[in-house]
Structures are given as structure tokens and as C-alpha cells.
Amino acid sequence: MRTSQRGLSLIKSFEGLRLQAYQDAVGVWTIGYGTTRGVKAGMSISKEQAERMLLNDVQRFEPEVERLVKVPLICNQWDALMSFTYNLGAANLESSTLLRKLNAGDYAGAAEQFPRWNKAGGKVLPGLVRRRAAEQALFLEAA
Fold first, then answer.
1. Which of 34, 69, 81, 141 could join 15 via S-S bond, C-beta 3.0 to 4.6 A?
2. Per the residue annotation, which of 15, 48, 66, 135 is the catalytic one?
């Protein structure tokens, strides 16, 4: 399955666009739409590079989500899980109760898990509360 334009827009809306490298809430160097791989202090990129980096990151996470999820998904569920995984990484999805419930066929139970992932560095962040609520709403939305 591929991430839709709506899924990409959700990721972009919460990541925001930064053309200069910065340290995120837990001190990880980040650039573009939340890209962390290979980012160093002082880096700067163009909007076009940021778009390419986003698509590369999404293409890197899609096979991971495909590998981990064992039940059928509709596009909205896929997009919500891609936003979640883009933000938290495949290892967090893999170890999550969200994934365990989802793979057991408990879609509603899986959806209830999104809001639990609202912390960075042990602190609840308002942006993560909003992001998880948006992901949960998208996951629960009928196709």
C-alpha cells in the first residue's frame, strides 16, 4: 500500500517545514519535514530537497508498516499508521500495544492506543496530543 496525498499532508502539517537544521524536543538534529537521518548542525536545504527527503523517508517506512501489519487496512488507516511511524519510528510501532491489538483484529482497541503516544523526553507535548488525535480520527474514519 502507498501513502496517499492526504497522509503526506497530515505528516507535513504536524512536522512543519524547516529549511535550516534544528534540534527537536529531545535534541535530535532535524530538517525539512522532520527528516533526521544524516542531519547535522548548520545544514540547510531547499523546499524541493525537503519534499524529496519526505518522500524518501515515507518510502523507507512503507515496507516496515507493510511487514508489521498483518490485517487488512483501508487507505485512511494506512495513512494514520504512516504518520505515527514517520514520527515515532518502526521500532516503536513494532513494540506497541496499538500494533498488537490491530494484528488481533481489534481495530477499535488499536485506535484507542494513539493518544497514549503523546510524550517526548518524558513530557506530554501539546503538538503530539493534537497529532495523535488527528491520526486517531483519520484511522477511525470510514473510507
1. 34
2. 15
Set of cell numbers at residue 2? 502507498
Helix runs in 3-118, H state only: 5-15, 47-68, 75-88, 90-94, 97-103, 107-111
pLDDT digit of tens for each residue in the chain (143 aa)?
Answer: 999 999 999 999 999 999 999 999 889 999 999 999 999 999 999 999 999 999 999 999 999 999 999 999 999 999 999 999 999 999 999 999 999 999 999 999 999 999 999 998 899 999 999 999 999 999 999 75
Told to judge if 15 belongs to the known catalytic residues of this protein, a careful annotator would answer yes
What is the CATH topology of the domain spanning 5-140? Lysozyme (1.10.530)
- Sign of CA pseudo-dihedral 130, 131, 132, 137: positive
